[in-house]
Design brief:
Rossmann fold; six-stranded parallel β-sheet
Length: 293
């Protein structure tokens, strides 16, 4: 699995996934046990974690040391801090940091949003975009895009553009019964693009997991703390969500969506895309010109 993430936020799940190949077989078993029910599994006793991983306590402690911790208590303290960050709502952030700004919203936005996008692209591997384009342009696959309460705006935006460029693109509805109907249509080789940010939405997670169980390839766009969908994803792109307000910013997620749009447009057959775009525009023009009845 390829994980492109922001190292400025020490998401342990991202580090475990990114460094998996550097660990021994026994250490990888510990990683998988932690990620299977992340982060709760890492908050159990070291003996319990070792038993679940079918390794010795010494193996667990060796992995913890490789991750840079002085001991298991320090490792668990980091997990608790991350859990708090993952579950923090805008209201909780408001309570912790009530507005007392000396700078205007304009100045803060210029600083935070620009920095967020720069940090995201600094750590976004070109290979991750290449792999995403291969998934999104596979002619044998249908592409389903799904998001949550706010992130559905990004998934729908990306879906609308992909529909101009290739057939078989579905913007998954937020209505539960329609979302389940889309899930029933997913086949092996299909691709699901899921946008999921803290406080990770249960129905988005369930959709992605069920789709992966049906054989679909999952591309996950998430924040530095990583959606629980990370364990089901083939490709993970983590974006910075630093914001000038108590609400997380999706500016970097939209920037990644724009990058995928540009990369797919470069990859698909230009004549085919031009014909699709012309047909779409012609039909849209006809609809807009139709008299009301």
């Amino acid at each position: 699995m390829d994980v492109s993430s922001d190292d400025s936020v020490q998401a342990l799940s991202a580090r475990l996934l990114a460094d998996m190949d550097s660990f021994t077989n026994s250490e990888r078993r510990v990683c998988r046990a932690i990620l299977a029910d992340y982060p709760v599994s890492g908050l159990e006793s070291v003996t319990t974690l070792a038993h679940k991983s079918n390794v010795s306590v010494a193996t667990v402690l060796r992995l913890v040391a490789k991750l840079g911790f002085m001991g298991f208590p320090q490792f668990q303290a980091a997990l608790r801090t991350e859990l708090s960050e993952r579950l923090r709502s805008p209201l909780a952030q408001y309570a912790l940091q009530p507005p007392s700004h000396t700078e205007s919203a304009y100045s803060r936005s210029q600083e935070f949003i620009t920095s967020s996008i720069v940090q995201t692209f600094r750590r976004l591997k070109p290979e991750a975009i290449d792999e995403a384009v291969m998934l999104l342009t596979d002619p044998r696959a249908r592409v389903y895009l799904v998001g949550g309460r706010f992130s559905a705006n990004i998934s729908n935006y990306l879906a609308s553009h992909l529909q101009h460029m290739r057939p078989g693109v579905v913007a998954v509805s937020e209505v539960p019964i329609q979302r389940n109907a889309s899930l029933l249509e997913i086949r092996r080789r299909d691709v699901v693009v899921a946008f999921d940010f803290r406080r990770y939405q249960r129905d988005t997670i369930e959709f992605g997991r069920h789709a992966a169980e049906r054989g679909a390839k999952l591309l996950l766009v998430t924040d530095p703390w990583l959606s629980p969908l990370v364990t089901s994803a083939q490709l993970v792109i983590a974006v910075d969500t630093t914001s000038p307000s108590v609400f997380d910013s999706y500016a970097s997620a939209f920037a990644v969506a724009e990058t995928l749009i540009a990369a797919v447009a470069d990859a698909v057959d230009a004549d085919h895309m031009r014909k699709r775009m012309k047909s779409h525009d012609d039909w849209t023009r006809d609809l807009m010109a139709a008299p009301e009845v």
